[in-house]
Structure formats: structure tokens, C-alpha cells
Design the sequence.
């Protein structure tokens, strides 16, 4: 088979997806790249530095490594994007266009992640449907909404096999938070086991769609493995799992770490969270290619704490 290229392999999703793809296809078959040198377990296979804004460098890697699939994960996330909106737009958009152009030139299969950030304050909050009003209020959400349309355009006009998922907040334990509004749900586990009071930047009752990283990785690979004829939506599929508030997550953790404390100090990220859905209708993904999450809040909390106890010890 042709090799797989991961762009943004050093991020929260990228690091875990790289490991899963190497386990599935072999370490030598997956080239991990990032804007900075990679380290740790990612060095078990081929790695190199890649600026996703550099189309010539991207094309050179595709040719020299005989790339057939690209997972383009590099992006500026929601909270960080608000501090530098023009840079976030330039990186999120131009890097995607570089990959889509490469897909047209080299006949690549492409994965590009979207997000619930495409939705806005006038989107239906409960069981947000696949097709609905969006009107995002962050540069991250605006870039993701535009990116969805570019993906659909390149598929329709040039037959590029590009696939996408609208991720909810992703929660994992193998890497630290990366600047997203839902990243409180990553940091809270570290603070619980380090014996620190967690300062939550969202209010206690802010319910948001969330997903354990194990499910996100499996769903991503399942979508890419699906027959092309089964992929009916070429903007991006809604992808759901669970919804909870900071208070509900805290209660799940404190049941296992009784001394854990939390304080609520909402900041600018509260307004971002308030513009997003409470829950997601992902029936199209379930129908078209068999999406089904495996973790609920209780099972996820137990699994993360068991793994992090080893890290923190």
C-alpha cells in the first residue's frame, strides 16, 4: 500500500491517531509530521518537520514517500484562535487548500477534521441535526465551516475523496490540552491526581458534547476505511457520544478521588461554549458507515484515572 501522511502529528488527536494507524498498518507506513520536531513514542516510525503552509514542501513529501492518504490535523483551535484571528484563518484555510490541491494532483484520499464550532448561538441546542443553521461566532468555527464547503467543492468538482467529522470536545490522557474551549475536560483529570484544586474556566452547568479519544480515533479510522460509496456527506458528518457539564464531570471524578476540589472562574471561553450545542444528532454517520461510540462518562472517567495514576505516580 501507499504510505499515510499525518500533518499535525504532535497534537492531542494527531499523536494518538498516529500510534493507532501505525499499529494497524505498520510503523514504516505512517509518516508523522509537525511544525516542530516530534519526540517520544512517535519516533518509533518515520518523522519529519513540515510547515503545512508550504505547498512545495508538502508536495515533495508526497512524492518522495509515495503517499496515498493524508490526515490533515494542523489547526489553531477555538480559544487560541481568538487571540490571533488572522493567523488562525490563514493557517486553517491555506493549509487545507494546499492539501486539497495535492489531493487533486496526486489522487489522494484525505481526512480533515471539522468541529461543533461550526454551529452558532441560533443553532438548535438539543440533538443538533446534520443539516441546520450554523452562523459560528469564532474564527475557528468560521474557518471550519468554510473548510467543510471547500471539501465538498473539491469532491464535487475534482472527485477528491475527502472525508470529515465534526468532532465534539475530545478528551484524552496521553497529551496535554491544546487551546480548545473544551480542554477543561482534559486538564481536570491531571489536577485531580496531582492534588490541586481545579480552576474551571466554564460555569458549572455548561453542558457540551464530548467524546473520549479512543472513540474519536476509532471513528476516524472507520470513516476512512468505509467504502467510498458509503460516504454520502462530503462537508462533514455530525459525530456524537456523550454530553455533560463541568459539575457532572467533577462528580464522576470525585466519586473516585474524594478529596478533589473544584472552583469555577468563567472567562472569555464561556461565551464560546454558550454558542455551541448541548447534544448532537449523529444518525447520518450511524446509518451511512456504522458509527457507534463505546464509552460513556462513567467508563471514560474510570479508564482515564487508571491510566493517569501510572503517569502521575
Sequence:
Amino acid at each position: 500500500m501507499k504510505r499515510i501522511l499525518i500533518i499535525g502529528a504532535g497534537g492531542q488527536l494527531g499523536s494518538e491517531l498516529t500510534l493507532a494507524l501505525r499499529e494497524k498498518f505498520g510503523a514504516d507506513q505512517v509518516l508523522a509530521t509537525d511544525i516542530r520536531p516530534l519526540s517520544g513514542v512517535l519516533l518509533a516510525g518515520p518523522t519529519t518537520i513540515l510547515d503545512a503552509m508550504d505547498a512545495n514542501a508538502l508536495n515533495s513529501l508526497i512524492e518522495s514517500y509515495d503517499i496515498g492518504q493524508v490526515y490533515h490535523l494542523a489547526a489553531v483551535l477555538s480559544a487560541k484562535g481568538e487571540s490571533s484571528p488572522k493567523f488562525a484563518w490563514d493557517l486553517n484555510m491555506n493549509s487545507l487548500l494546499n492539501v486539497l490541491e495535492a489531493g487533486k494532483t496526486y489522487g489522494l484520499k484525505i481526512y480533515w477534521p471539522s468541529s461543533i464550532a461550526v454551529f452558532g448561538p441560533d443553532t438548535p441546542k438539543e440533538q443538533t441535526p446534520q443539516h441546520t443553521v450554523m452562523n459560528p461566532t469564532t474564527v475557528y468555527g468560521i474557518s471550519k465551516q468554510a473548510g467543510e464547503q471547500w471539501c465538498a467543492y473539491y469532491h464535487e468538482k475534482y472527485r477528491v475523496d475527502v472525508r470529515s467529522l465534526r468532532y465534539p470536545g475530545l478528551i484524552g490522557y496521553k497529551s496535554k490540552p491544546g487551546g480548545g474551549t473544551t480542554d477543561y475536560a482534559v486538564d481536570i483529570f491531571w489536577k485531580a491526581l496531582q492534588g490541586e484544586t481545579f480552576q474551571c474556566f466554564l460555569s458549572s452547568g455548561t453542558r457540551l458534547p464530548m467524546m473520549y479519544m479512543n472513540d474519536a480515533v476509532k471513528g476516524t479510522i472507520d470513516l476512512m476505511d468505509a467504502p467510498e460509496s458509503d460516504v454520502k456527506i462530503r462537508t462533514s458528518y455530525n459525530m456524537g457520544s456523550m454530553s455533560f457539564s463541568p459539575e457532572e464531570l467533577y462528580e464522576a471524578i470525585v466519586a473516585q478521588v474524594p478529596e478533589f476540589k473544584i472552583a469555577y472562574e468563567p472567562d472569555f471561553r464561556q461565551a464560546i461554549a454558550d454558542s455551541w450545542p448541548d447534544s448532537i444528532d449523529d444518525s447520518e454517520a450511524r446509518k451511512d458507515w456504522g458509527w457507534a461510540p463505546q464509552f460513556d462518562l462513567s467508563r471514560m472517567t474510570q479508564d482515564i484515572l487508571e491510566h493517569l495514576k501510572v503517569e502521575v505516580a
Summary: The mean pLDDT is 95. The CA atoms of residues 2 and 68 lie 5 Å apart. Residues 85-106 form the longest helix (22 residues). The first strand starts at residue 3 and ends at 7.
